[in-house]
Amino acid sequence: MLREGLHYLAGHQGMRRLAATNPVARKLASRFVAGETLAEALGAIQQTNRLGMRASLDHLGENVTSREEAAEAADGYCQAFDAIAANSLDANISCKLTHLGLDLGVDVAEELTRTVAEAAARNGNFLRLDMEGSAYTERTVSMTKSIFDATRSVGTVIQAYLYRSADDIRDLNGRGIRVRLVKGAYLEPASVAYPNKADVDASYRRLADALLADGTFPAFATHDIALIEYVKDRARSLGRGPEDFEFQMLYGVRRDLQRRLRAEGYGMRLYIPYGTQWYPYLMRRLAERPANLLFIMGNVAREAGTARRSGTG
Ligand SMILES: Cc1cc2nc3c(=O)[nH]c(=O)nc-3n(C[C@H](O)[C@H](O)[C@H](O)COP(=O)(O)OP(=O)(O)OC[C@H]3O[C@@H](n4cnc5c(N)ncnc54)[C@H](O)[C@@H]3O)c2cc1C
User: Fold this and answer.
1) What is the whole-number distance in angstroms between the Cα of residue 312 and the centre of ligand 1?
2) CB 245 within 8 A of CB 235
3) What pLDDT score does 298 carry?
4) Quick check: helix, strand or coil at residue 313?
C-alpha cells in the first residue's frame, strides 16, 4: 500500500511543486542526489573516481512537455560530456528519453538523442538510455538500436520484472549493444511484469546468465547481495573476469557494499543524479525502501524534539 502510494505521489504535479521548497523533502533528497548544479555533480564524480569507482551522471528530468525544455536538456547533456572530458573524469551519462521529448513524439526524441549520442562519440564516451515505465519500453529499445547503428555510443537498461526482457536481451546481445540489468523501479501491472519478488529475482538470475554468456560489457545494477554473489559465481564459472562486466549502484545507497566490491577488484560505477527536478527520482527511491521514509521521519521528529526542548521550536 505504502509503496503504491509513493509511486502515485511520484507522478503528482502538485506534490512535485510543494516538495521543491519543503526543507524535509530537500533534506531527504540530499541523501540520493549529488546537488542541484553540474559543478556539484562533477565534484561528486571526482570523489567517486578517487575511490577507484566510475560514475554515470544523470541530469534529473523526465516527461518534459515542450520542445524547448527537451532541447535545453539535450544541450545540457552535450555540455556535460565536454565537462567530463575537460576534467578527465571517469564517467559516462545516463538519461531518460522522456527528458529528451519522447512524450512529444518519437521524431523529437530521436533527433535530440542522436545529437547527445554524437557528443558522446566525439568524446570517446557512452550514453546510457535509462528505462522508464512499460509504456516506453518498446520505443526505448527500438531507439537504442537505431541510434547505436548510427553512432555505436549508446546502450540501454533492461528490467528483470518485465516478461519481455529475455527476448530484448537476446536481441541486444546479438547486436553488441551494452545492457544494464536492473530489477525495475516502476509500478507495473501483472499483465506485463512479475508481481512477486521471488519471480523477479529468478528472472534477474536468468537474464544475468544470458548477459554473462553473450553480452557486451554488461552492467549488473543492484544492491541485492544474493544477486551480486550469484553474478560473481556465474562470472567465475564462465571465465569472465572483472574487466568483462561491472557492478553499478546508486549514489547514497549501500556505500559499504560499493567499497567492498571495489576492494575485491570488481568494477563499480555509481549512478550520480543531480539537478532541481529530483522529486520523482526521490519518490522511486523511497518506494524501493519505505524504511528510508521512516528513518528520515524519525530524524525529523528527533530534531523537532531537540529544538522544542532548547526553546527554539
Ligand atoms: C545504477 C542503477 C541504475 C538504475 N537504472 C534504472 C532504470 O533505468 N530503470 C529502472 O526501472 N530502474 C533502474 N534502477 C532501479 C532498480 O530497478 C531498482 O529499483 C533498485 O536498484 C532497487 O533494487 P535492488 O536491485 O537494489 O534490490 P532490492 O531488493 O530492492 O534491494 C536490495 C537491498 O538494497 C538496499 N536498497 C535498495 N534500494 C534502496 C534504496 N532506495 N535506499 C536504501 N537502500 C536500498 C537495501 O538494503 C535492500 O535490502 C537502477 C538501479 C541502479 C542501481
Assistant:
1) 38
2) yes
3) 58
4) coil
Inter-CA distances, 313 with 19, 302, 309, Å? 22, 12, 8
Q: Which residue of the set 58, 128, 130, 168 is catalytic?
A: 130
Residue pointed to by grid coordinates 569472465: 240
DSSP notation for 52-76 = T-EEEEEE------SHHHHHHHHHH
Q: Are 297 and 84 in contact (CB under 8 A)?
A: no
What pLDDT was estimated at residue 77? 97
Q: What are the extents of the domains in the chain? A: 1-33+278-300, 35-276
Cell, residue 187: 509500478
Instruction: Look at the block and give the residue holding cell 550514453.
Output: 127
Thinking of the domain 35-276, which architecture would CATH place it in?
Answer: Alpha-Beta Barrel (3.20)
pTM (predicted TM-score): 0.91
Per-residue pLDDT, 276: 85
What is the reported pLDDT for 101?
97
The set of cell numbers assigned to 153 is 555510443
Ligand 1 site, residue 193, Cβ cutoff 6 A: no
Q: Nearest to residue 223, comparing CAs of 204, 259, 249, 184?
A: 249
Atom 24, ligand 1: residue with shortest CA distance: 222
Grid cell digits, residue 199: 519471480
Backbone angles phi, psi at 9, to 5 degrees: -65, -30
Confidence at residue 288, expressed as pLDDT on a 0 to 100 scale: 81
Q: Which residues of 257-279 are buried (b: 16+ CB within 10 A; e: fewer)?
A: bbeebeeeebbbbbbbbbbebbb
Q: Which atom of ligand 1 is nearest to the CA of 184?
A: 17
Query: Residues of the chain whose pLDDT is less than 50?
Result: 306-313
